[in-house]
Amino acid sequence: MFCFKVRFLLLIVLIYTMRLITVITAIVLALSIVLYSSAVVGQPPASWTFFRGRMEGTGFSSSKAPDTFCEPKIIVFGNNPTPEDRPPIVCKGRVYIVCGNGSLICIDYKSNTVLWKRDGDFAVPTYYGGFLYTVDDTDVVCLNASTGEEVWRVEGAIKGLPVAVWKNRVIVAEGLFVKCLDRFTGKV
């Protein structure tokens, strides 16, 4: 009987200990979510420089939504007016858009004028340090974001996937592998 009581007491202690650990874990998780979200939302409005928003991959902007709406301006290049589902990149007063025919264009945000256009079959670019990094068909390409001029081009990437940039490295998927390139030269 004594052994049964000891086991029962140990079971009760174990249950309450597990509940306490669960409660503490829940509190820590809730606090971390609150602190993280307040830190992100408290930041100044950021550019939309990467697929899914910012480099943090949050998928949202802390900018205020517009309080007035107008008809969208539709820009068509070539003979393919079909809207595409590729998101735009917004940075430093410019909008970078991949058109329905695969061309990449740069539009001044305020004046709505096209600053440059590159023909190709581009994926959504990534803006980093004054350059656009993207995939054109199956080549990794670095473009000058101001002029659209090609800085370098390297073979080997999966068409359509976004390019990640971290410090001085460009990271792309190539088949079952990941390729890491120097962001200034394109060398592996």
Which tags fit this structure?
alpha+beta; 4-stranded antiparallel beta sheet; single chain; 188 residues; Thrombin, subunit H
Concise summary:
This protein has one helix at residues 2-41, and strands spanning 89-91, 94-98, 104-108, 114-118, 126-128, 131-136, 139-144, 150-155, 164-166, 169-174, 177-182. With 188 residues, the protein is α+β, with helices and mostly antiparallel strands.
- The Cα radius of gyration reads 25 Å
Instruction: State the CATH topology of the domain at 89-182.
Output: Thrombin, subunit H
CATH architecture term of the domain at 89-182: Beta Barrel
As a percent range, the share of helical residues equals 10-25%
The CATH class of the domain at 89-182 is Mainly Beta
Portion in strands: 25-35%
Please state the average pLDDT score.
72
* Count of distinct strands: 11
Low-confidence stretches: 34-45
Shape: elongated
Strand order of the largest sheet: 1-2-3-4
Structural class by secondary-structure content: alpha+beta
Alpha-carbon distance between the termini?
Answer: 72 Å
**What is the number of helices?**
1
Largest sheet: 4 strands, antiparallel
Task: Give the H and E element order.
Answer: HEEEEEEEEEEE
